[in-house]
Amino acid sequence: MTGWPKCFTGEDIGKNYTLYLITIALVSMLIFPFLSREILLLIFAGAGVYGYITSSNRNITNLIVSVVLLLLISITANHYSYSLPKYIIISAIQISTIGFTSAAIVRRGTKKDSQENTTNLPSSLALLIAGAASAFIAGSWYAYWTAAVSYELIFFIAVIGAITAALFESIPSSVDRLFSMTLGSAMAMWILASFGYTVAPFHLLIAFIFALFLGYLAYRTNIADISAVLSATLMGVLIIVFSNILWFVLLLTFFILGGVFTKYKYNYKLDLGIAQEKGGVRTYENVFSNSTAALVLAIACGIYPQHSNLITYAFLGTVATAAGDTLASEIGTTARQSPRMITNLKPTKTGTDGAVTSLGELAAFGGALAIGILGAAFGFVEQIIPAILITCAGGWGGTNIDSLLGATFQKNGYLSNSGVNFVATAIGALISGILYILVL
Predict the structure, then answer these.
(1) pLDDT tens-digit profile of 380-427?
(2) Domain end residue (candidates: 130, 162, 197)
(3) Which residues, in sequence order, are CB contacts of 334 under 8 Å at separation 6+?
(4) What does the DSSP assignment read for 124-173?
(5) Is the pTM value of this prediction over 0.85?
(6) Are 226 and 291 within one domain?
(7) Looking at the structure, do residues 256 and 319 belong to the same domain, yes or no?
């Protein structure tokens, strides 16, 4: 035998390749509870060097390298009173071996796709289910021998790690997927495990099924692609677990509004060259740029319940900003009047970063108002009128900050459109949070 198998090309997974991945998964699971990080590092480093020297295919070698990096991080963290637990590393290995193999097998049997490296919804679901199950089994094996972690926490991070890995696999990248999936899932699990926050498995499953189902509906109606479905599922699970289901429904309202109004006069916007690409289908970039601030606030609400009122108002402000900005862009660009730059009010071309119209300003206010009314209807707040006004102020203010950033930082290349969206939604949350402190 001369190194790792060379049969992983095109649609052909290869029996030997599959056997190698399963062997790595099983052996890793068996030895991790009993060997120190240093010994494990020597074993995987040796395997990586061997694979690099002897193999023309680098998939398995890249997997080994990612594990070596995680072990180095874990050893270094221990020296500085931090901890990257071994059960997280072994869970990441399972997701990247068993999960990825399951996804590849499903892709090979799907007639719709002609290439093995083309993700599809069935293969992503296979990765999710097989990855989460194998990660939970391996983590439970570790917990049985070490009693270092609860089974509830293992189940929680296994699900989050599998969703994260599936997301990384769905995003086109020049980086080897086994490498990015292993590191990405491990980092996500490490962050959540460090909170020490656990959730009942049944509650987690309900959250997962609900978020995935809504994501699937968005996919079937051409509002979202696979990466957006997985991104929304990840965010949905975390938001539901740390806050409640209505927080996710409110955030989802923004995506629905965006998807609907993207189609508004789409041909007209297409003729002007300002229509959303791919028919307005949302990607992971849209999800994360507009929802990261909301996710952070939802997690903060679960960790710091004593500040729930302030966090709730900030959450309403960030979602209102996302909704207001989307409606301002999709509706405002159809105005017959000439747009003006927000910085100097001079007429400019439709679609220019930082261009505003009176119709767009009205649409931004309408989007923020819709979020404020829904937030009140869902019982987010007790004082309805002040809450709606504060939400509208945060959403409208954040939307105009978005335009200002577009006319300055984005125009000069300091921020991308996604960066502008993230900063604007964070500022919208800040505006609503400050107004809550001053007014209520």
Answers:
(1) 988 999 999 999 999 999 999 999 999 999 988 899 989 999 999 999
(2) 197
(3) 264, 265, 268, 269, 359
(4) HHHHHHHHHHHHHHHHHHHHHHH--S-HHHHHHHHHHHHHHHHHHHHS--
(5) yes
(6) yes
(7) yes
